[in-house]
Every structure is written in structure tokens, then in C-alpha cells.
Description:
By secondary structure, the chain is of the alpha/beta class. It folds into 2 domains: about 5-60; about 80-280, Rossmann fold (3-Layer(aba) Sandwich). It contains 11 helices and 9 strands. The chain has helices spanning about 5-15, 15-25, 30-35, 45-60, 65, 90-100, 120-125, 140-150, 205-215, 235-245, 275-280; strands at about 70, 75-80, 110, 130-135, 155-160, 170-175, 220-230, 250-255, 260-265. The chain has a 7-stranded mixed beta sheet, with helices on both faces. Strands 1-2 form a two-stranded antiparallel ribbon. Helix 1 crosses helix 2, helix 1 (about 5-15) runs parallel beside helix 4 (about 45-60) and helix 2 (about 15-25) packs across helix 4.
Amino acid sequence: MQAGRILQEAGTRLGRFEARLLLAYVMGVPVEKLIAHPEMELSASQEQAYRLVVQRRLKGEPYAYIAGEQEFFGRAFKVTPDVLIPRPDTELLVETALHILGQFKSPRVLDLGTGSGCIAVTIARENPSARVTGCDISEPALRVAAGNAAGTNVIFFKSRWFDQVPDGSRFELIVSNPPYVAEASPYLADLSYEPKGALVSGPEGMDDLTEIILKAPKFLSPCGWLAVEHGFDQGDPCRRQFSEAGFSDVRTLKDLGGHDRVTLGELRKVPKLLSRDARQEGRHE
Length: 285
């Protein structure tokens, strides 16, 4: 069967964009090639495989889990149902981290709840002088992260937040994208394929954020920073908890949709952060 014909058929059910993405994945060719050559022929096995992945997608399985990877900060990261799918909003946390790290010569970084490792690995690749460590309670997630970290010096270990971080450890920056969805949130219906333990955090979605904020000062070096991602309605409670935990220069940054997304604070005042536009101009290619 020709690519154009099967795309027309699947496109009426999925939408042409997703139908084309899935077909390119099954055929192992760039999407651009399908656009330029709709007359390309599928083998019988490719046609069968394509119909199967279309059914998976129609049932709600995310494309990233079907294809086994997701782009983040311009790089492809392997993902499985053991880890959350990296999202564009989390790039704000990485951009913030990279700006903070610019003031340190050889900074130590801890990524709590590393999941796929996309935050830790991106920081390490964008700032090779950083000594990055990531932890997660899930062993399957750690295996995914280790695969994504190949070729870097990122170290991973098993820990629930700070539980297995050695006493006396100090970091210039601690980052985390922890679970922050409330137990009864209606958004969970759209996230049924992703690991619930990486999403849900108590009745208000604040349990893990609270624990991280309160315990982080013990593991930060002088002038150290904490930066966390959170829900669009959690900026106020996060800022309050940062202040109560002894952080100064506390502020919340908004994502591209204009929603509160990242709150950060430090143990001693340092130069003011640049705007997000300025940070993006300085992003490494």
C-alpha cells in the first residue's frame, strides 16, 4: 500500500499530523520524506505494524511511549511507561538551573526524582563543568536515566528524595520536578498511561514539594539554590514555604503559557536572574 493512501485513511481518525508521525516511525524514515514522497510503498509487515500503533494511539497511549522517545531541549530522550514523558514546560526549570550555575566554577548539582534523567543529563551536557547527580526511588526509572546519560559523567543512585543522600553532602544547586498533582485532580484522567507515583502527591499535590523545600537547606552549600517545578496554582504556597524554610530572594517564574511553573530561592542574596528571553538567547546549541 502507498504511504499517501494509508495516511489518508488513518488521518481521518487520528488527524494527519499524528498519523504521519506514526507512519514515519514505523517506516523508519523522516517525516519530511513522507511529505515529499507519498507514493512510497509499505511492506506488508509495515502496514500491519502501522495499523497496530494507530490502534494503540486511538486508545490513548501517548506517542512518546509508542515511539520510545521524546524530544527535550533539542535532544531525543528514551522513555518508557516507567517514567514521565518530558514536557516543554520543564525546559524552564533547566534554563533557570543553567543561569544559576553560571556563577559557579565547578558546581555540584542534585536532581531529585530524576525519572528519565532529562533534567540531569541536559544540565550536564549544557554545562560540562557541572558535577551532576540524580536520584529516584524507582529502579526501572534509574535504568532509563542511565541509558539517557551514556557519554556523560552524571551519576545516579536510588533514593526517595534526600533519604539516601549522605550526611554532609552539599550542592550549589538542587533541582526537582516532583509529583505535584492532587489526588482527586480531573487532569489524571488524561495521564492514565504515565506512572501515578510520579504524578500524585497528596490531597493538594503539595506533599512532596513541602518535604523537598523543608529538607533542602541541609544539603545546600552557602549561596546554594533550590529550584522546583510545580503546578500552575502552587506558586503562592511554594513561595511561602521557601520563605519559611529560610530561603531568600524567592520568586516564581512563569512558563510560556503565562502560568506559575518554577519557584526558586537561595540561602544568600546573589545577582538577579535574567528574563527568560535573555536566557533563551544564551542557550547552547
